[in-house]
## 1
Amino acid sequence: MRKLPTIFVRTISTLSFKKILMLIRATAPHPLFTLLSFYATIRSFALAQKHFPRTSSANGIGNAYRHALWTCLIMMYCCKISSPQKALNFCKKITDLHEELFPNQPLEKKMDLHNNQVGMDLFMELLQGIHRQFFETSFFVEKLMVKTKTAVVLSDIDQEPVEELLYLEE
């Protein structure tokens, strides 16, 4: 936890001035959502590292899990202070922006965007049966663990999207 300020500063320092402005434009209108998203980022890294210590930072199944978990956590935290639709719009905007600010190879980007969407879809599906104020992390952590068992290897940029998590073979 002590390393967080250092990691944050190091990450921001890699961005160009134009990208920093893009980030400010996206986050300044929503300061609470931004703080909650930052917390969701920290939690998703910690949980993914716990469950997938070897692949949470690579492009394997742990990365797929982390991206879907990240969006679920952002949605859960933001839904506690706002409507699900506003939370969904912010989550989509900020996670798509992340892929633009920190670009990957095309296959990795496709995988990350897809897994982000899987997380948002899962949260919205679960939301139908539970009041948003009573949501807990455990509601989707186990569901995402099950999804890791049916995850599909993404091997081609033109591969048709599926409803499962996608990952790259290591």
Note: DSSP finds seven helices and two strands in the chain.
## 2
Amino acid sequence: MSDYRIQGDTGEWEVVIGLEVHAQVTSNAKLFSGASTTFGAEPNTQVSLVDAAMPGMLPVPNRECIRQAVRTGMAIDAQINTWSRFDRKNYFYADLPQGYQISQLYHPLVGEGSIEVSLDEKNPDGATKVIGVERIHVEQDAGKLMHDQHPTRSYVDLNRSGVALMEIVSRPDMRSPAEAGAYVRKLRAILRYVGSCDGNMEEGSMRADVNVSVRKPGDELGTRTETKNVNSVRFVMAVIEQEARRQVEVLESGGRIVQETRLYDPDRNETRSMRSKEDAHDYRYFPDPDLLPLELDDAFLAECRASLPELPDAKRHRFESLGIAPYQAGVLTAEVEAARWFDTLLDAGAPPVAAANWTTSELFGALNRTGRDITDSPVGPAQAAELLALVADGTLSGSLAKQVFEVMLETGESPAKIVEDRGLKQTSDTGAIEAVIAEVMAKNPNQLEQYRGGKEALFGFFVGQTMKAMGGKANPAVVNALLKKALAA
């Protein structure tokens, strides 16, 4: 149970949150037409006669869109309905050429499922919570009104008209902004692993309608508001916090919450009223007469299930079974591209624990520093495996490996070539190391006397001086062993 509460003048208030996430289905065509769905195309260049609602045009379901929605349902262990039906949701707006939206109200494709989220990002094996998913239904998107093209007119872009969406409707199980943020991140990860949605919230291919209500702990559910089309995890969390506080202020001042649709203004960090919230009967839903029910056979369902990849939780547990720390396993599996990159690194023979330490610290740190992500990393898994192998066999020390890695980032060259060309190979030549140790001891008589007088902390000083004198190329284990022997003499 979340301990998140809004502190009001009359005491504590609990927040109740449900999310309706609209995820654009990964497909080369729209839900009922063959028109392209490429992002960023010129307005009205990806519109078929069906999308424009020309007379006599009949919709034909895109099998791939249905397949992707079923695979998504399977990924959250949801009920897959072998019989489902499309309905018409009737409303009139300039960006909806048909005068209705084809959706699924009464008989959705996917029924109840659940998503387990971690409530502690630093410890994926810590506190978790299961968020219920009520349903996933498929529907077509509307077009887009453009108000900034002319001083007195609005224009309509129908490129998005008919784009296939999965509407993933959660139960009102979340009780804090953090829980909602964790839910959206986990859902996004699952969608990207499955390949059913690219999850690019900034491009609008995944967005959330945020339902918020407040109540005194233990009371009945309060009246909810719905804030539409929120397009980032950070904004989802901000909407919840701001809208909950607004509702508490309204209720404590003697007002009442109106069931309505609201918009979020990120510049002002506030929600504002858009329109009164409609109920299902306001849309006059009825079965779409142009579309037969969807009936899924066993062979289709078996193919969908067989096509599922290893999902985030399973991959994280597998990494942990290799000895990788839970936090690192969580970091490595949070994004599908990073998880695949790391799996390729393991396949190249890299030792799991050393590979995880290096990837999460050195590689991710360098990518963050240079503004890159794993998909355009200048260092590939094969090169990384080679670098780790050079450390494992004693060719490179940790400090030398860092130097080699920096050169790899700049040039893309292989570690072996860099070591050879720049003379960076670690030395274990005991004679050479003993000579340097003798020189360091001769130059630091005071420290030598103090060490031999019992100040053993100075051992690190002698190690550092020796490594410095050898340009960081001495084998640290050999240096330590020879130093102990020399200092004890």
Note: The first strand starts at residue 6 and ends at 8.
## 3
Amino acid sequence: MSRMQRLSNTNPLRLVLNNATRVASPSPFQHHHQQPQPQPRSIPTPQQPQPQPRSIPTPQQQQPPLSVPTPQQTVASLNSRSYTNKISLFLFILHLVLAIGLVGFLIFKGIQGLLEEGRAQRNEKRILKYFLPQVEAASFLSITLAFIWQKAVRVWPKLMVHFIIWSSFVLTLAAGILLICFQRPATDGIGVLFIAFSIGNGLYACWVTQRVSFCTKIFIKSLDPVSKFPDLNRPTYWMLGAGFLWMSFWILAVIGALNFSVPPLVIMALVLSLAWTAEVMRNVANVTVSRVIALYYLRGMQSSTQFCFQRALSKNLGSACLGSLFVPAIEALRIVARGLNLVEGEDEFMFSCAHCCLKVMDSIFSRGNGWAYVQIAAYGKSFVKASQDTWELFQKRKMVEIVDSDITSSICFLTGICSGSICTIVVAAWTATVHRGYIGTLSILAAFIGYLMTRIAMALPHACVGCYYVCYAENPENRLFDKTIPDRLELIESGRDVAVPTPRVPRRFQR
């Protein structure tokens, strides 16, 4: 027995003795799925006590804890079959049916006025000759620019971030100067608005200079998975094609509205309807891309783009409709909040309203933000729930300052401004040679069309950046992520880099 005690640890006889004396009991989760294996009987020795009999776990102990999700629950969460935000989905479908009916009726009124002899016929012929060609040309030009901008951002992200910020300033300034040169009351007012926007754009470009380098790094990293999905851009093509067809019928409805009662109100309703519809189209493309990229980050899955597109048009369409209404307003509130923060003073009475607005914006932003589309696409959550969960993730990972200072939304917005300014310059110069009376109306319409079409195309890079942030916050240990965000967090915590977040309520007013 003394020789047996001196055996090496790798000796087979010593291994048999160790297995006989030290028996590890299985975990309750393993015991629930596997039958217990029979253990070899121990060999008693003078120096070795008898092993205690192993207790058999009770049925209550065999069940896994409720906090540990089973594989079946994970699969169900990724393939939710319930429709999200059904009320907003119903309202959008109702609005779409009414819009189609109104457009069809106005087109009929336009054809009727064109066939009847009189003043209405002469006005519509003049509009069809000097108004319609420029609008259709603006639609074609905007789609072309949309493809060019998106391709350029995907191929040269580092160059395009700087180029978009400063070209938007130059192009809006050029459009404003051109409109003022026509010396008409309508064009002078529109030109002043363009110049005022260009001045604000230039100030913003100077303000975000420190954040451009990090934005380019995020663009480069987030666009890496796009090459693994050759058909990822197909939903954007479908949305742009549908947008162009709807835009063509919409223009004919605007012409027909001139022969209907109260034309300004009807045209305003058509403009609001087009804005909501185009925003929903953009968010459908956003949700589609977000699901494909998010499942790649979270599960390593090569998802079908067509299946994700069908899911975005059915299960998640309600959340896309609700987000299309609130996210633009929330982004506008962020701009207002930044302006209020710049004029903040020490007079509590004078600036109490500003601090109240900041507090309201802070509460709204945590319940409705553009980052929610990633969890809407991946887990099928409602818009408000996805916004809250995403913001809690950012707070847990201490990423609030980083996502607040992100300028991806601004880059996509300024890309649309660039396209709108180019369309305005082309259409205004063309209209000045054929019918100067339509310059003001066509300039606004061309800018609106160019902006909407480009925003639809920029949904792909925007969604990729959103997936990079949200999926990192959910699983920072994923091997697909590098040290870009951790290094940024370390610089902010050490005080060597100061992010410029969305203004919050000062601490002295949070009591």
Note: The first helix runs from residue 2 to 5.
## 4
Amino acid sequence: MWFNPIKVGIAVLALVSPSILAESVASYPVGWESWPVVKESQNLPADTVLPPDTSLFIQESVKAYDWINNGLGSPLTIRVNPEKLEQYKTHGPYTDGPTVVAISEVQGIIWVTEHLSGLPIYGSYNRKGEDISSMHPSLEASFCHQCHDAYKDICINGTCTEPVLGVYEKQ
């Protein structure tokens, strides 16, 4: 079993005092481009009008990421580590290591969810693997943790289940 005491310490600090760390905690998963696509969604444009019965999770997600692509939105692709596909189908529990990536296709943002000692940790990178968490507050690991933790009914074990496009499929 892989265990890195430095990462565990960083993860604990991020969970206990999220304001301490703005950098990504999850590592950039080399080779994510070959992981299977499990879901496609959308970072919606800033001027999106959501249906009145839209979940608070989707409302908060749209508000948090309405800046992407200068407010024009972007397709979002979700890929899962092939070693964790079966775990993803039941939303865990997850083994250690990179679990899932969400890619904002136009902006080139790669959100990473990794698991360490059963806990989700997060990171934000560009396509070159450079940490971009300081580019915007909604890309910081603490922001990811706070939102995923607040919506545990949707973000089970750190992976979220309600695609934003599902809001429009109901109409």
Note: The chain has one domain: 5-169.
